[in-house]
Write a structure and sequence with these properties.
The protein is α+β, with helices and mostly antiparallel strands. The chain contains 14 helices and 26 strands. Strands 8, 10, 11, 22, 23, 24 and 25 form a seven-stranded antiparallel beta sheet that branches. Strands 12, 13, 14, 15, 16 and 17 form a six-stranded mixed beta sheet that branches. The relative contact order is 0.20.
Length: about 600
């Protein structure tokens, strides 16, 4: 499950000695980088607000009670902030990455106006915070609407059972996103689909790029052993299916031209396409409860579930046996089963004759067989497509039996989603290597295509045991709050921030274990206001941050491209003050983009 891992919060109040009551201050000049101030109803002329770094849910600023959220839907209001530095910097001169910084706040809105370098956002509709009675009514209706429309998760208390359910965490309203950023992310998805397919097919590139990680990381080493075995045997299946998701945050160092920066490219178990598809209707409903009827151009339709399911159906067709089934390879216990069920339901809607079965690794180990022609059967059912919804973390492999089951599936003629080489291509180390100068040109010859891809890259730095890795260590030790330290792991809760980076670097500084990590610049998207609804938690207006994901479907057969499409989107949102952002891991909620111009 790919989750929102790198949505980052605001940091460090510095050099602010006298802000005791912001309510009575009409003009604040020459302060630096105040990302979290976003809903200031009475401060129209804040300029050059820079370098307030550690605003975590506004708890370090006294008397900011009046900064309650100007996400205006009904009265046209404006919030203006001048571009400035955030205290988060990209270091130039290292691996050729240009610098960037700055992130003014962005309010929900249908219009963005720029005037003399400032960012002005206006929206007609709901004014936040809602009155208590209205909030209680709309939140209750929104939760029930979500339950009626299948936005469901099993409970922590009963993760094995579908008898006791609750709604999956979600935002009460859609969150604003610059329309240009959304479109840029859509436009580049097929390019990333193709690039990552080419990477996965290049064994020598994978071997050279992952060499240090294979030596330092047992999990990656096991995956590499499987790839090597299948390659030497010339077994496996040449047809590959990738259901990808590319994740981004909005960078607004230049408020007149917001841009997207890629957090990661997920080739394995790219989740929440099912639930995200349903959420758009929930947000239309909650907006309309507030009297906002003219939202058609701002809330884009989301066909993620149908698009992903169509990819599975198309791969099933290519297998060529209409009696074969699609296998969802799942965890023994999954609270997020309904996101998976939505894809199963969509498969049935496309072709009711396709059978979908669910099994875990131990069931594959105990009951699956390879026939003489390498067909994969389980309980007498031939498998056309194996769709991995688990197998991306070491805890999915508590014994050698799970690894043997993985090898059995990879050796088979079943079409894998993803294949082991595509899984490895989605690792953090490959992301870092591709960001180096000249690396994209190894795979993509079109110069404009290369520029389009490279524009989305954030700063990525090696931690290999070499001079470049030593430079990264020195840089991160000096400014740990500017970076995220990432292992080759997925699922949320794995990344390191701030003081934890220093502690881990001190532990692994001169060992090969250091090579199992990469360092990434820490991106700060514009903060916003929303209500994040989570079962058992109070409903309250919070500062939030968002991450956009775009889904893609790619089917290839060696060098032949069979299918390459962009199929939908996901927005995930978390409260300020939390480093991680996975929905299934409990850090965030699903959301919808409200496109602003």
């Amino acid at each position: 499950m790919r989750e929102m891992r790198d949505i980052q919060d605001t940091r460090g109040m510095q050099d602010i000695q006298d802000i005791l009551d912001i309510r009575d201050m009409q003009v604040m000049k020459d302060m630096q980088g105040m990302q979290g101030i976003m809903d200031i109803q009475d401060m129209q002329d804040i300029q050059d607000v820079r370098d307030i770094r550690d605003i975590k849910d506004f708890q370090n600023i006294k008397d900011m009670r009046d900064m309650q959220g100007m996400q205006t839907f009904r009265t046209l209001r404006t919030f203006r902030t001048k571009s400035g530095h955030s205290g988060h910097y990209r270091h130039s001169g290292h691996n050729g990455h240009p610098g960037h910084s700055g992130h003014p706040s962005v309010e929900m809105g249908s219009k963005v106006k720029r005037d003399q370098g400032s960012l002005t956002i206006a929206h007609e509709g709901v004014s936040l915070p809602l009155p208590d009675d209205q909030l209680k009514e709309i939140a209750a209706k929104g939760k029930d609407f979500a339950l009626c429309h299948g936005i469901l998760m099993r409970t922590k208390e009963e993760p094995y059972s579908s008898e006791l359910l609750n709604y999956a965490p979600f935002t009460l309203f859609p969150s604003p996103l610059p329309r240009t950023c959304f479109q840029d992310a859509l436009d580049v998805q097929t390019s990333f689909n193709y690039l990552m397919h080419l990477v996965a097919q290049d064994y020598e590139f994978l071997q050279e790029s992952l060499k240090s990680v294979i030596e330092a990381d047992d999990f990656i080493s096991h995956l590499w052993d499987i790839l090597t075995t299948v390659r030497e045997e010339n077994s496996g299946q040449p047809i590959v299916l990738n259901l990808n998701r590319s994740d981004y945050m909005v960078d607004v160092k230049d408020p007149s031209k917001p841009s997207i920066k890629q957090i990661e490219f997920n080739t394995m178990a790219s989740s929440f396409g099912g639930l995200a598809t349903q959420l758009t209707s929930v947000h239309r409903y909650t907006l309309e409860l507030c009297g906002v009827m003219n939202h058609q151009s701002n809330l884009p339709d989301n066909g993620a579930a149908t698009g992903l399911a169509q990819g599975l159906v198309d791969a099933w067709k290519l297998y060529g046996n209409q009696s074969a089934a699609v296998l969802f390879l799942v965890e023994p216990v999954s609270r997020n089963v309904f996101d998976q069920r939505w894809l199963e339901i969509k498969i049935h809607a496309i072709n009711p004759s396709i059978r979908v079965i669910r099994r875990n690794f131990m069931q594959i180990y105990e009951n699956a067989e390879l026939t003489d022609d390498r067909s994969l059967t389980i309980d007498g059912i031939e498998i056309a497509v194996v769709y991995f919804r688990c197998g991306y973390v070491p805890t999915d492999f508590p014994s050698n039996k799970e690894w043997e089951a993985k090898l059995k599936m990879e050796r088979s003629l079943a079409i894998k989603c993803p294949s082991v080489q595509s899984h490895l291509a989605g690792s953090k180390k490959i992301q870092e290597v591709l960001a180096r100068p000249g690396m994209l040109e190894r795979f993509i010859r079109d110069e404009e295509e290369v520029r389009k891809l490279r524009r989305t890259f954030a700063g990525l730095y090696t931690l290999d045991l070499n001079p470049e890795g030593d430079k990264t260590v020195a840089m991160a030790m000096k400014h740990p709050d500017h970076f995220v330290m990432k292992p080759q792991r997925e699922g949320g809760g794995n990344n390191l921030y701030g003081d934890d980076i220093i502690m881990e670097l001190n532990r692994v500084k001169n060992t090969e274990e250091r090579s199992a990590y990469i360092m990434m610049e820490r991106i700060f998207p514009p903060a916003q206001k929303n209500y994040l609804l989570k079962a058992g938690a109070p409903v309250q207006l919070s500062g939030v941050l968002c991450e956009l994901g775009i889904y893609g479907v790619f089917i290839g057969n060696g060098s032949t491209v069979v299918e390459n499409r962009q199929v939908g989107h996901l927005l995930r949102t978390k409260t300020l003050g939390t480093n991680e952002g996975g929905v299934a891991a409990g850090f965030a909620g699903i959301d919808s983009p409200y496109l602003i111009d």
